[in-house]
């Protein structure tokens, strides 16, 4: 018995070591790591079910008649019980997008490259393949495959001194200035102040007309400009090819280094270790939020602060996990902050949603809602500090004096406490229905006799939402004045305590009301009238009550309720609506929640419930995709 237990323990340890093998080959200095646990995925959805699914058929139907190509997921040769990893590394000159994949059948995997054997080489047990466009390097043995895709840093190679080290020139194309062959002097066409102002006549010399076949100076200049541009484009293409060759050579060297990597692995990083969860099907970890935002900001022309001293100060790691459980699928995120930043956000999220809002949520009828609750006064008081710690490095680089001046002026002229009373910071939007609205519009038709167009008034039906929006205001004198001004200007019409927007629009009619320290805006006059009388008392379900009252931000979407609203003869005439209704009918509730800051971490969760009679939420998702694709 003891021998059996010992053997079982050794077998478990060997399997664990094999699973962790690829993870140990990810360097500790990696900026981001993403994992896909194929074993968790295919435990929920078998390989056969995947092949028969809409996605599987889309992948393999085109190759089913070719015996040399894969016909099923197992034909790819990957280990469907292992784990795959993506990781990102960057330096000042190059970045690497890398992927580790576990192999189960090497011969099947190598069949993927039979059509391009000329770019595949083998040295002992190690094979290497260069992508046809030289954008990536694949290296593999019997157990694993590594894909390395390089990307040169444009900022690094825009420096001529640095670029010259690698035989690359920085080209700056300056188009020649084209000068007209006839120069016309400026002619004064106003009234003269004196006789002397126009005493000298203006003479314009016009050249004789050009005979057919003759070449003018302008033609010669244009030809020279074209030749210069052609020379530049050829030189630019040559430098780009040199860059591509350099990137590929670096990628090959990096692949050799990583394939038998023996240095410090990412598993030893405390932040990464804390973020790991083997129950998730997929996960992602980013060392620092700035590592994601810095390249994104640079794309839009902002300064890239990778070399800045603090960059986005206060934000740390970012983590995400995707789970497929029996009753729901979940996407969770967590962002870690330093103590100072966390304290600021705790103040901002210190407010709870106004409990009076819950009176106006009917869980049986609502199609969805969106809520948030922040402390406006705390937000305005902390915003200058947040501005100083984040924005300046993107807009102003290291010269942050101007940004600090802006934040100081802002905090000086603004009365945070007064603004916090006017707009307390909590709000709720409730979507109650979607109806069909008949609207008039003008069309123009041709007259058969004289072909002139004449305006014709027509009508059409279009979707119109019924919603109620509300936010708290302890001091609503400003809004009272705005309503009175709107009535005086003829924009609003007062009926009792309710104001109606007179002009409105084709989208929906709008009604406004202020009562019990709440500013309301809605599309249903009867609902606003009941609120004004204090007779509207709805009761949300315990689930919705908890979602609204316990979170700083929340959202809900009820697909089945929407499908019931659309199941009318008027809606079903539209084929697109009919297909949309069929998809919604098979969906479960979708909701989002974020409860603020805990232990210096901001968390958020997106949940989609299993709305069909499926064994687990992954099978539900695949069934939903198939329904939508019909």
Question: Any overview of this molecule?
Answer:
The chain is α+β, with helices and mostly antiparallel strands and 630 residues long. Helix content is 36%, strand content 25%. The chain has a 21-stranded antiparallel beta sheet that branches. Strand 5 (126-130) and strand 6 (137-140) form a beta hairpin. The longest helix has 43 residues, at 217-259. It is globular. 22% of the residues are buried. The model is unreliable at 1-19, 181-199, 303-311 and 392-399 (pLDDT under 50).
Mean pLDDT across all amino acids:
83
N-end to C-end Cα span: 56 Å
Shape, per Cα inertia axes: globular
User: Per DSSP, what share of the residues sits in E-state strands of 2 or more residues?
Assistant: 15-25%
User: Which blocks of ≥5 consecutive residues have pLDDT under 50?
Assistant: 1-19, 181-199, 303-311, 392-399
Helix content range of the residues, please?
A: 25-40%
> How many distinct beta strands?
21
For the CA atoms, what is the radius of gyration? 34 Å
Query: What kind of sheet is the major sheet?
Result: 21 strands, antiparallel
Number of helices: 21
What class, by secondary structure content?
alpha+beta
């Amino acid at each position: 018995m003891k021998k059996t237990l010992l053997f079982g323990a050794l077998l478990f340890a060997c399997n664990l070591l094999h699973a962790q093998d690829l993870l140990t080959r990810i360097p500790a200095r990696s900026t981001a790591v993403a994992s896909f646990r194929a074993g968790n995925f295919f435990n929920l959805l078998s390989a056969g079910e995947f092949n028969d699914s809409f996605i599987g058929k889309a992948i393999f139907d085109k190759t089913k008649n070719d015996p040399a190509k894969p016909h099923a997921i197992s034909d790819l040769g990957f280990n469907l019980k292992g784990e795959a990893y993506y990781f990102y590394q960057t330096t000042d000159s190059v970045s690497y997008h890398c992927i580790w994949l576990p192999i189960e059948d090497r011969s099947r995997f190598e069949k993927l490259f039979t059509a391009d054997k000329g770019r595949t080489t083998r040295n002992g047990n190690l094979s290497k393949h260069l992508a046809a466009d030289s954008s990536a390097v694949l290296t593999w043995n019997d157990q694993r495959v590594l894909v390395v895709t390089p990307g040169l840093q444009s900022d690094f190679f825009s420096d001529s001194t640095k670029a010259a080290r690698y035989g690359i020139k920085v080209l700056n194309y300056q188009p020649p200035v084209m000068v007209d062959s006839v120069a016309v002097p400026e002619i004064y066409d106003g009234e003269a102040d004196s006789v002397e102002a126009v005493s000298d006549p203006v003479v314009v010399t016009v050249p004789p007309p050009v005979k057919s076949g003759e070449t003018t100076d302008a033609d010669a200049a244009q030809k020279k400009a074209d030749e210069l541009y052609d020379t530049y484009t050829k030189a630019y293409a040559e430098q780009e090819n040199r860059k591509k060759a350099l990137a590929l050579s670096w990628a090959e060297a990096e692949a050799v280094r990583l394939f038998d990597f023996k240095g410090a692995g990412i598993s030893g990083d405390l932040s990464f270790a804390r973020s790991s969860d083997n129950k998730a099907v997929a996960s992602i970890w980013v060392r620092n939020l700035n590592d994601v935002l810095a390249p994104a900001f640079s794309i839009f022309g902002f300064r890239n602060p990778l070399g800045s001293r603090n960059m986005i100060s206060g934000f740390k790691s970012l983590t995400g996990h995707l789970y497929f459980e029996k009753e729901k699928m979940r996407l969770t995120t967590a962002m870690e902050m330093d103590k100072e930043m966390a304290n600021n956000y705790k103040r901002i999220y210190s407010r709870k949603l106004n409990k009076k809002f819950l009176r106006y949520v009917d869980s049986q009828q609502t199609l969805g809602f969106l809520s948030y609750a922040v402390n406006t006064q705390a937000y305005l008081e902390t915003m200058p500090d947040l501005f100083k710690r984040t924005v300046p490095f993107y807009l102003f680089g290291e010269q942050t004096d101007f940004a600090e001046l802006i934040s100081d002026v802002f905090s000086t002229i603004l009365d945070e406490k007064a603004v916090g009373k006017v707009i307390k910071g909590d709000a709720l939007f409730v979507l109650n229905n979607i109806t069909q609205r008949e609207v008039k519009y003008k069309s123009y038709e041709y007259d058969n006799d004289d072909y002139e167009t004449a305006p014709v008034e027509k009508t059409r039906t279009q979707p119109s939402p019924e919603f109620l929006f509300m936010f708290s205001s302890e001091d609503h004198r400003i809004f009272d004045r705005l309503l009175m001004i709107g009535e005086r200007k003829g924009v609003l019409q007062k009926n009792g305590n309710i104001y109606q927007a007179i002009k409105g629009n084709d989208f929906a009619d709008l009604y406004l009301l202020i009562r019990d320290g709440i500013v309301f805006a809605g599309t249903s006059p009867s609902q606003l009238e009941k609120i004004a009388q204090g007779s509207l008392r709805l009761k949300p379900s315990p689930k919705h009550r908890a979602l609204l009252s316990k979170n700083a931000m929340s959202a809900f979407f009820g697909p089945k309720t929407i499908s019931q609203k659309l199941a009318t003869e008027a809606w079903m005439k539209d084929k697109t609506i009919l297909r949309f209704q069929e998809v919604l009918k098979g969906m479960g509730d979708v909701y989002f929640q974020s409860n603020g800051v805990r232990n210096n971490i901001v968390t958020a969760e997106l949940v989609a419930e299993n709305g069909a009679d499926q064994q687990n939420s992954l099978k539900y998702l695949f069934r939903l995709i198939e329904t939508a694709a019909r």
